[in-house]
Write a structure and sequence with these properties.
Blueprint lengths: L8 E10 L2 E11 L4 E6 L5 H9 L10 E3 L7 H8 L2 E4 L1 H6 L6 H6 L14 H13 L15 H13 L5 E5 L7 H18 L2 E7 L8 E3 L1
Parallel strand pairs: 3-7, 5-6, 6-7
Antiparallel strand pairs: 1-2, 1-4, 3-8
Helix pairs in contact: 6-7
Length: 219
């Protein structure tokens, strides 16, 4: 008898309220290894709130019926261990990332889930970071500062940061926001290639237009 692998994500009747407003309403969802999901909805539909629970940036994650990789994130220490298995990219991360770090240091910071590099990297980690920059056609950017790169290249550097530790789960929250059409196509094609190379499962969120009352998840 074949035993099914432990789900990557399990949400069971999850409701999130903020300031008296219900952001997520009784969400039940299971994501398994090998699945890739698109999370679609207009602004305010709850996409980012849902992803923040999974990423561990929402304090309500501790109290909800939520499991990541089969484990409930009941303590900060547990949550940090779980986050090592997750790669993350979002417009907010891009907005707040310091411009003065080199692109190599930006990628290396992905090993530590930090905005900026405040711990020494091993030679193996630096080699891995250089390898990802090379795969994305950014080897020449390694020693340049993050702020010197174009917006499109910055987003690719942050994508390399998200995959450098070979995460089991890759979360891309509106990764194309602010990019022109050419850079959007390039980024999405790169994501397709990286999923094949890393074998990570993907959640990608995207804004849709219209009056849809809440986000929907599809695969």
């Amino acid at each position: 008898m074949k035993v099914r692998a432990t789900p990557l994500i399990e949400l069971n009747h999850v409701t999130v309220r903020l300031g008296g407003k219900r952001i997520l309403d009784d969400v039940t969802w299971t994501m398994r290894r090998g699945e890739n999901w698109a999370l679609l909805g207009p602004n305010g539909s709850g996409k980012t709130t849902l992803l923040s629970l999974i990423q561990g940036d929402n304090p309500q994650a501790y109290a909800l019926n939520l499991r990541l990789f089969g484990v409930r994130p009941e303590t900060t220490a547990t949550l940090w261990r779980l986050r090592r298995k997750i790669g993350w990219l979002s417009p907010e991360l891009h907005l707040h990332y310091p411009a003065g770090w080199s692109c190599l240091e930006v990628v290396c910071s992905g090993f530590f889930n930090q905005i900026g590099l405040y711990e020494p990297c091993t030679s193996r980690q630096r080699a891995a970071a250089r390898g990802w920059l090379r795969r994305l056609g950014l080897a020449h950017r390694a020693e340049q500062t993050f702020g010197e790169s174009s917006l499109g290249d910055q987003r690719l550097v942050l994508l390399a940061r998200a995959v450098v530790k070979k995460p089991r789960l890759l979360i891309l929250d509106e990764p194309c926001q602010g990019l022109d059409l050419a850079h959007r196509r390039s980024l999405l094609a790169t994501v397709d290639r990286l999923i094949g190379q890393t074998r990570a499962s993907l959640i990608l969120s995207r804004i849709t237009r219209g009056k849809c009352p809440r986000a929907s998840a599809t695969f």
